[in-house]
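Example record

The entry below shows one chain as it appears in the dataset: sequence first, then structure tokens.
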Amino acid sequence: MAKVAFIGLGVMGYPMAAHLKAKGGHAVTVYNRTAAKAEAWVKQHGGASAATPAEAARDADFVFTCVGNDDDLRSVTTGETGVLSGMKSGAILIDNTTASADVARELFAAAQAKNIDFLDAPVSGGQAGAENGVLTVMCGGEEAVFERAKPVIEAYAKMIGLIGPSGAGQLTKMINQICIAGVVQGLAEGIHFGKRAGLDIDKVIEVISKGAAGSWQMENRFKTMNAETYEFGFAVDWMRKDLGMVLSEARSNGARLPLTALVDQFYGDVQAAGGSRWDTSSLLSRLEKK
């Protein structure tokens, strides 16, 4: 059992912190910007809550962060009451936020200056993956630090991989989002085409999902897409944030991402139509507009 702090109890962080306590058996202290959410978590799962990130992190062996973006991350880590001001020497800071590679490298340096270890460890698997404790975790950092942290991370993960040095986890998450964007757009166009052709989409997917066209998105999203139901899941706003970081990184490293840039524009259309909080599978909605 380790002493753990978890900072950020959103749709992902709330269940991830719960798995650290229930499945991992760790002593967990939580912090959330909205204190009522932290109080509700403690009431449901036990453990303790803290008034600031620094207070939550004090004496912890492992500190997890899972917040919205680079600015939020800096606030809860290097800010005046951030975790780095409360963490003990030799502890490990594990960031599950989907953020930029630049901020990951920045936090690595800031942590090292205080003799604290750091992993950037963004996750994939969505809310369902977090709730079921089966997330994929992509890590950047030093191998010895990764090996120490891996048994703790396993409480909420089915796959954990060390990709490379600091920032590599965030770059891998960008690749994840590139691949998802292309697959969802292809699935949207396929369903749209099939409906216009008068085919039974359930029968079509039953067949093609068992072949080379099969994907997680097809298996898990085609029914709701066919029903034009999108009020759940990974929000379009979040995907656009992620794709914005992807395209910014591509401008820096010279990668050419024409499909990703196009799908990002399509998500902009969905936002303009009022679908900012719809699931990313809502790309079909812009094709099905009457």
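Notes for this example: Residues 168-196 form the longest helix (29 residues). The chain has a mean pLDDT of 97.
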